Amino acid sequence: MPDFLRRFIILLVVAAGLLRPGDGCSQTEPAGTTSLEIVGRVTDTRGQGLAEVQLHFELQGQQGRMALGEIDSDNLGGFRFSAPGLAVDSPLVLWVKAAKPGWRLLREQPFTLTHGGPALVQLTLSREPTPAAGLAAGIILGVFVLTSTRLLHRTLAGLLGAALILFLSYTLGTWDSRWFMLSFSEAVHSLDFNVFLALIGLSFFAAVLKQADLLPWSAAWISRNAKRPGALIGLGAIAAFSLGSLITPKVAVELWLPSMATAGFERRLPPGVLLFGAITAAQLGGLATLIGTPVNLIIGSQAHLTLGAFLRGLLPLAAVCFLVSGTYFLRAQPQLWPAPRRRRPAWRRPGR
Predict the structure, then answer these.
(1) What is the rounded CA–CA span in Å between residue 336 and residue 228?
(2) What is the distance between the alpha carbons of residues 103 and 221, in angstroms, rounded to a whole number?
């Protein structure tokens, strides 16, 4: 098949998919018909949107009460319901029921409808104590125990906990809604892909930094310009603080410590002094920036914090902690600061 014909067929298929009725092209209603639009949002007590809330609508007018239908809220808690063939010619009452496993049932909340525009509905649900909360807490506690005792790799432990929550939600939760913890769509929506991409980018940055041999050159420069062991430890800690603020502290220590240890062994410094100083500085550096640790990335993404806002909030605190801990550490190691040589009196000098 010629290449131009293959391209023409691909473009034809794509155009046919884009021009399908109902996808991307708004269809107007026939002339003379009206519809009742109900638009709203379901939130919790903190104002966060709730997904997969089952909403039931009923309309009460002069002719009695009639059911309009049901709909589920989207991932942000919003919903839009349309009842074709209905017009609000006189004041009507809209009754709304909302239900979600693990949340208190909202029973028939009324809304008065008037002529003109869509009906705006705002609902708020509160948590209900259920056995599912205790079960989820037990699973999370078990994951922490497995990771802290190193009985299982932390990745496998996290995946095991997530699989248990989903499995029990769709087994026990199907039998009794009080045991329902989390749906699959909510679990996928809670994944923050911005954090994943940021971690991948930081991994690439760390790999390039390792291949560029910048850290051995920096350690050699510090060793050449630091006249005393205490100055060597201080400059190395500042470098570890800066490196930990750009990548995760664990990776920063793994990349920086071998080069710094080589410079320390030339000065015959104890390894524990280098290790303790580098780890403490890298941890404080990771605390100060948005990209310092994965926890900071998650907090910044959920709170919509910028890199500058995170720096203004935590960099002064991290700098003060770094200065205080560094001063205490250096003063607690007297061997790093050799005592000055005492000058002999003139009458005890040789040759007198």
Answers:
(1) 7
(2) 61
The residue with tokens 């026990």 is 172
- Sheet of 106-113: strand order equals 64-72, 54-61, 92-99, 106-113
pLDDT tens for residues 89-135? 566 788 888 888 888 888 777 887 766 567 788 888 888 888 888 88
Number of neighbours of residue 169 by Cβ within 10 angstroms:
23
- Whether residue 66 contacts residue 92, with contact meaning beta carbons closer than 8 Å, is answered with no
CB 57 within 8 A of CB 94: yes
Q: What would the two tokens of residue 119 be? A: 């009906």
Structure tokens belonging to residue 298: 């998650």
Looking at 3.40.50.720, 2.60.40.1120, 2.60.40.1570, 3.30.1330.60, the CATH number of the domain 36-124 comes to 2.60.40.1120
- Specify the length of the chain in residues: 352
* 266/223 Cα distance (integer angstroms): 9
* CB of 277 closer than 8 Å to CB of 327: no
Residue ranges matching CATH 2.60.40.1120 in the chain? 36-124
Give the per-residue pLDDT at 142: 92
In whole angstroms, what separates CA 63 from the centre of its chain? Answer: 52
Residues 6 or more apart whose CB falls under 8 angstroms from that of 232 comprise: 222, 223, 226, 263, 264, 267, 269
Q: Are strands 119-124 and 35-43 parallel, antiparallel or unpaired?
A: parallel
Q: Which two tokens stand for residue 314?
A: 């935590």
What is the DSSP secondary structure assignment for residue 127, as one 8-state letter? B
Quick check: 114 and 91 in contact, CB under 8 A?
Answer: yes
